[in-house]
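User: Here's a chain of 93 residues. Predict its fold as tokens.
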Amino acid sequence: MLAIKGYPGGRPVTIGDLAERLRLRHHTTVELVDRLSEAGLVERVLDPSDQRRVLLKLTGLAADHLAELSAVHPDKLSRIELLLKRALSRRPE
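Assistant: Prediction complete.
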């Protein structure tokens, strides 16, 4: 999901683009997108300018999950930072 959201240039993402970005084979990426779609996290949308192309779009549920994850990580990082500072400030016995 993050690879779709953070795709360079903010342009629409195809399965081929995603496969290249993740360094996966096309069929592996199709399976991954199928799972994301079944979970309600990604939608396939026809490109309005070229009906042969399918674009990937994150759903609101995916955006919610990404927001939760980004909110959780700073908290974890700040706790780890305190532990690291304590551990590094201890003098060897």
